[in-house]
Write a structure and sequence with these properties.
elongated, 2 strands, mainly alpha, about 5% strand, single chain, 2 helices
Length: about 80
Amino acid sequence: MTKEKKPSFETSLAELESLVEAMEAGDMSLEDSLAAFENGVKLTRQCQQELSAAEQKVELLMEQQGQLLSQPFDTQDAGES
C-alpha cells in the first residue's frame, strides 16, 4: 500500500474556498451539495490540524532568556479579532 501525500495547507484552503463559492452560487444539486459539504468538512479538519501543528511549533520555538518557553498563541495579539 502506498501512502497518499496530504495536500499543503494552502492547497486545502484554496479548495475549501472554491467549494464555498460553488455552494453559494446555488447551482449544485442536493447530492452534489452534500458531497461538497462532506469534502469541505474533511478539508476544514485538515486545515485545523495543520494550524494546530504550526501553533505547537511556535510554542516550542518561543525562547526567553535562553530557555524554551511554551506559551499559547494569542490571535488577538496577531491582529485578528
